[in-house]
Design a protein that fits this description.
Length: 220
């Protein structure tokens, strides 16, 4: 299912407006009108240096216009519009993403260490939820046109509850929110987390740890 240009434009405007009104930017304030990211710069700074020359194409991105392929183990794919793909976002303190779900697809438990997230449903019906640092679980079923906010850094997930595809737009108050998948971080890190650490933490044996690691290992 594709959305029309007018609908897509309206959604992006609404979500961007919500970021400005609803959040305090997690990134430092900009000190000039424009600072298009120079992604080729060798300087190592907290963010990206500014390009010396730029044009209108640096402020345009169409990477969220169409659904992404969801033919994978989890039935989910995300496309991001962050500063690494959309240099015009540099220093602006915002970014977007599009999540596409196959029927009953799952965006696995993960966190965004540098941003809160506002989830807007384009179509479908999803169960969303987050867990506080006090281990309290908050969850809600949301459908097209509805939103749910995820506080910065907290573990959360989204799951398509229906037999038809679903899609969401995520708005972040950072140009590069970062994403850490909990299962992948623990069982597919390089170098690997010791088996005995994971076995004790999850109260399973080392053979089970190895089985999980094998399933989550990057495909060669």
């Amino acid at each position: 299912m594709e959305i029309g240009p007018r609908t897509a434009a309206t959604i992006v405007v609404v979500m961007s407006f919500a970021v400005f009104l609803g959040f305090v930017s997690a990134d430092p304030d900009m000190l000039q009108d424009v600072c298009v990211a120079d992604l080729t710069a060798k300087a190592n700074v907290n963010g990206f240096p500014c390009k010396e020359t730029f044009n209108e194409t640096d402020f345009f991105f169409d990477g969220l216009a169409k659904p992404g392929p969801t033919n994978n183990t989890f039935g989910f794919v995300v496309n991001t519009a962050n500063v690494e793909k959309f240099p015009g976002l540099n220093t602006l303190g915002l970014s977007l993403s599009r999540g596409d779900y196959s029927p009953y697809g799952l965006n696995r438990p993960h966190s965004h260490p540098r941003a809160s997230e506002l989830v807007f449903v384009l179509y479908g019906e999803l169960e969303v939820g987050f867990i506080t640092t006090g281990n309290v679980f908050f969850t809600k079923t949301i459908k097209a046109g509805e939103m749910f906010v995820i506080p910065r850094g907290l573990i959360h997930f989204q799951k398509n509850k229906g037999p038809t595809p679903a899609a969401t737009i995520g708005a972040f108050n950072s140009q590069l929110a970062g994403t850490q998948s909990i299962a992948t971080a623990l069982f597919a890190a390089k170098p690997t987390v010791p088996d005995d650490v994971l076995a004790t933490a999850f109260q399973i044996d080392t053979q089970q740890v190895e089985m999980i690691k094998a399933k989550l290992a990057p495909k060669s």
